[in-house]
Design a protein that fits this description.
alpha/beta, 18 helices, three-stranded antiparallel sheet
């Protein structure tokens, strides 16, 4: 089962993040993924740190093969069609119309391979007033409303990891897997379309439910107030996070840990509803207390009282955490040209195993000669 997609051939025309992430997820499940890259430097993500092998590229392209094809030329298109004739999945994230200009229409692909599952990832979809606009993570975050529930309007600053890019790639993988299951039943391929705008909207449905059912427009603190999520600076300048939820025992234990029994009698905080309404006030009350001890001291006290908590780790601290080490979340491999590389295992085990042997992201065109021989390309 860890090679669940063994025998599935994926041709990836993916660049940067959305399609490469979807392709990597399929590869992690055992599919063979051949990444088609332009001869003039390949996937732009390669160049983020020079030498055509940036950490960004390596993070989203493990377990793949690479071949260079110039799809603007007839020879390159012929080679691609030869690959697609034997493929199970075509994965691409071009803007609408690019595939058609290359002569790769749905009808043409169906003619050469009616079993092909073609997944197209775009910014806004194949139709509509924004179809031809460029789309990246910040654009989709803004248009989908996600940014409005993450940014402080008084001091707006984009922070954190890519979200729209990542969730779009995950939804693409989900759509491909569904189409492959459908093909196993019907024998027919399918066209799967995913766009960053709708994927980002779907990723956070509760805000739209709040608005359409209650008339409430969510803001940056709406969800954290309801869930009673807090982050507090400690005496040593490090942070601790707690999540008190609506379970009364967590609130009572938290108050005991910080030795503030007065909060139990405070009329502003007598119920979950009141604590949600007065979230900012409660945060300020507790924050003052957290400055009295170091993060490690607070973590020990919170753990002893079964309060949902976590230190707010830096990236190096995550890698050194005993739970993460026990799970063997990270792996190391030796790359013949780039030395020791650290990667993250797929976060899913099947029958207790991580999956197929992990191979590093390919060098540009690394497998071109072998692929040409195997598929009889020019």
């Amino acid at each position: 089962m860890n090679h669940a997609l063994e025998g599935i051939l994926v041709i990836e025309l993916g660049t940067v993040l959305t399609a490469p992430l979807a392709g990597m997820m399929l590869a992690d499940l055992g599919a063979r993924v051949i990444k088609v890259e332009h001869p003039s430097g390949g996937d732009p993500f390669r160049r983020h740190a020079g030498k055509l092998y940036s950490p960004h590229f390596a993070s989203f392209n493990r377990n793949k093969e690479s071949i260079q094809l110039d799809l603007q030329g007839e020879a390159g298109k012929a080679d691609l069609l030869a690959l697609l004739a034997r493929a199970d999945v075509l994965l691409e994230n071009y803007r609408p119309g690019v595939m058609a200009r290359l002569g790769l229409t749905e009808e043409a692909l169906k003619e050469i391979n009616p079993r092909l599952v073609w997944c197209s990832i775009t910014g806004f979809g194949a139709e509509g007033p924004y179809r031809d606009r460029p789309c990246y993570d910040a654009v989709a975050l803004g248009l989908s409303g996600l940014a409005s529930i993450m940014l402080d309007p008084a001091q707006p600053a984009m922070t954190g990891p890519t979200i729209s890019d990542n969730v779009t790639g995950m939804y693409a993988c989900y759509g491909i897997l569904g189409a492959l299951m459908g093909r196993a039943r019907t024998g027919n391929g399918a066209r799967v379309e995913v766009n960053m705008l709708e994927a980002s909207i779907a990723f956070s449905p509760e805000g739209f439910a709040q608005y359409t059912r209650l008339g409430a427009v969510p803001g940056p603190q709406t969800r954290v107030a309801i869930s009673q999520s807090h982050a507090f600076p400690c005496a040593d300048g490090r942070l601790v996070a707690v999540h008190l939820s609506s379970v009364e025992k967590f609130w009572q234990a938290f108050v005991a840990v910080i030795e503030r029994p007065d909060l139990l009698e405070d009329t502003r905080f007598l119920s979950p509803e009141l604590r949600t309404r007065n979230y900012a006030l409660l945060n300020r009350e507790a924050a003052h207390t957290f400055l009295s001890r170091t993060r490690d001291e607070w973590c020990e006290r919170l753990a002893q009282s079964d309060v949902p908590f976590s230190p707010v780790y830096s990236v190096p601290e995550v890698m050194d955490d005993p739970q993460v080490r026990q799970a063997r979340t990270f792996y190391e491999i030796d790359h013949p040209e780039h030395g020791k590389m650290v990667g993250i295992h797929r976060p899913v085990t099947i029958d207790g195993a991580r999956g197929p042997t992990t191979r590093p992201a390919p060098l540009l065109g690394e497998h071109g000669a072998a692929i040409r021989t195997e598929f009889g390309l020019a």
